[in-house]
Amino acid sequence: MVTALTHARIFDGERWHDNNALLIDGSKVAGIVAKDDVAPGTELVDCANAIIVPGFIDLQVNGGGGVMLNDDRSVDGIARICAAHARFGTTGLLPTLITDTPEITAAAIEAGLEAQQARVPGFLGLHLEGPHLSLARKGTHHPALIRPMENVDLERLLAVANRFETLMITVAPENATLEQVKALAEAGFVVSLGHTDAPYETARAYAEAGAKVVTHLFNAMSPLENRSPGLVGTALDLGQLSSGIIADGFHVHPASMGAAIRAKRGPGRIFIVTDAMSTIGTDLDGLTLNGRQIYRKDGRLTLADGTLAGADIDMLSSVLFVHRTLRLDFEEAVRMASLYPAQAVGIASRKGLLTSGYDADFVVLDTDFQMKSTWIGGERVFEA
What is the DSSP string of 338-363? Predict the structure, then answer.
C-alpha cells in the first residue's frame, strides 16, 4: 500500500515543496508529487499544514528513557533508548558505550548485534567512545578504565567490524597507534579522534591513516591556539574530516560554534550530536556512571566537581538552538542533524534526504517547529 502525506510543506534536504504530497511505498520514499497526481486508492494521511523534514541522525547517544547503554546492555535497553529519542525526531542513532571494562564492551557489542538482527527501529549500529583515550582529556570517562589499545583489543574489534552496518570508535593518538587506526578503518570502522591533546601534525597523520570524524568538537581536546592548532584546528582545516558538535549552549559557546561552522573546510561538515544520557524523555534528577553520581540541573549534567557529564538535550532542541541562537537557516540546521551525519558515516546513499529510493525516515512538525510525529522506515513510531 502506497501512503501519501498531504497538506504539508516538505523539505527534502535540499529544497522545499509546497502543495505536494510525500509518497511512501513500504519502507522507502517513492517520491514527492503534486497532490492532484496522487493515484486513486492511495492511503492518505492529512498532515494539517505541518512541516515534513528528513529524520534526525544522532551518532553519539549514551542513553535515553532512563537507560544507559553502559548499564543495560540488552536489546530491550537499546530499543528503549531508540524509542526515547524518536519522541524528539531522531530516526537513526548509534547507542554509545562510554569507556568501560573489556567485559562490558563485549556485552554491549553482542547486544548491538542482537538489536541489528531484531531490526530495532532507529538502531544504526554502535559507537564505542573509548577506552583508548587520553587521560589528560578524559572528561567524564573514568580514569581507571582508560588504557592503551593492545593487540588483543584490536583483534576483538576487527572480528566484529564487518558484522555491523555502522560501527564507530573514538580513539586518541595517545593510546592508539597509526597502524591500529589504519587497520580499523580498512576493516570498516568509522574512526573518530577525540579526548586528546594531539597536535595538528599528529592528528593530520591519523586522518591520513583513515580517521574520518572528530568527536564533539572543542570538548575534551586542547584549544585552538595561534601556533598550536591541535585537533580543533585539524578538524576545521582538513576537508576529509567531519566533526560532531554538542549544541546545547553549555558545551560550546554559541560564538565558538558559529565561528567553527563558518570556518570548516569541506567536503566534511560539522554535524549535531546530542551526547545524551539516560535523562532524555524522563524526569530523573540524575544518574550514575561507573559508580559515580551525575547531577541534573538547569539543562546540565555534571559530576560533583562540576565536570560536564554528557548532555541533557534532544535532537529537535539542538536543531532549534542552532537555528534560533546561531541564526542559521532552518534548512541548514536540519541538514546538520540529518544529511551531514549520514555523510560522515557513509550512509548518505539512503538516509538524510527525502528522495525516491531513500529510507522513509522523517519528522512531522507543526508551524512552530514542535513535534507532531516521527516515522522510521515508513512506520509512524511516535505521535504527539
Answer: THHHHHHTT-TTTSSS-STTSB--EE
Mean per-residue pLDDT for 59-88?
97
Residue 110 and residue 37: Cα distance in Å, rounded? 47
Residue-wise pLDDT tens digits, 285-310:
999 888 889 999 999 999 999 999 99
- Specify the pLDDT at position 289: 86
pLDDT at 267: 97
Rounding to the nearest 10 degrees, give the CA dihedral for residues 45, 94, 339, 375.
0
Phi, psi (rounded to 5 degrees) for 115: -65, -40
CA–chain centroid gap for 19, Å, is 32
In this structure, are residues 301 and 285 in contact, taking their beta carbons and an 8 Å threshold? Answer: no
The per-residue pLDDT for range 324-347, each reduced to its tens digit, is 999 999 999 999 999 999 999 999
Rg (CA), the chain: 20
| Active-site choice (72, 275, 314, 359) | 275
pTM over the 0.90 mark:
yes
From CA 246, how far away is CA 223, in angstroms rounded?
16
Whether 366 sits among the annotated catalytic residues: the reply is no
**What is the bridge-based pairing of β-strands 166-171 and 2-11?**
unpaired
**Dihedral (Cα; 274, 211, 222, 195), 10-degree rounding:** 60
